[in-house]
Design goal:
Length: 157
């Protein structure tokens, strides 16, 4: 078990417009809202290694772009264990290693980590740099909501 029992993990690809939102939010949190006792990890487009790293933590928050038919820039924060109900509504990650895959492997490996997802609705994940205008306008609000969640739910403040 890591000395830091909480992980905040950014997922995404900054070369695919809004798909990079998880990485950008992670960087803002790391630079402006860094808290002791939290590991801030950039996992890019993720891999199976993500699940192996999760087992080192008591709690983890994954920040990722999603496609959930919400308004671009809208954020939903939920437990990974709730993904079964949410999957019926077709919420998926905006890249290859999606939330359903994470949940299935999490269950198979019997991980004990309490995992939360901060899913941010993307608008455009085409190959280009920079967020769309809608996500740029929502960005500060997204970072603040994630920071507040970390304080309240992960750190219990």
């Amino acid at each position: 078990m890591s000395d830091n029992k909480i992980a905040v993990i950014g997922l995404g690809n900054t070369l695919r417009r809004d798909d990079g939102i998880g990485i950008l939010v992670l960087e803002s949190l790391r630079n402006s809202y860094r808290k002791q006792g939290i590991d801030y990890l950039n996992f890019g487009i993720a891999s199976i290694d993500l699940l192996h790293r999760l087992q080192n933590y008591k709690k983890a928050l994954l920040i990722d772009g999603i496609n959930a038919s919400l308004e671009p820039g809208e954020i939903k924060i939920f437990k990974l264990s709730e993904v079964v109900n949410i999957l019926k509504k077709q919420i998926t990650s905006s890249h290859e290693f999606n939330l359903k895959d994470v949940f299935i492997l999490y269950k198979k490996l019997g991980l004990k980590t309490e995992v939360f997802i901060a899913g941010i609705q993307v608008q455009d994940v085409s190959f280009a740099s920079g967020l769309t205008e809608k996500l740029k306008k929502s960005y500060d609000n997204i970072v603040e909501k994630v920071n507040n969640f970390i304080d309240k739910e992960l750190l219990g403040k």
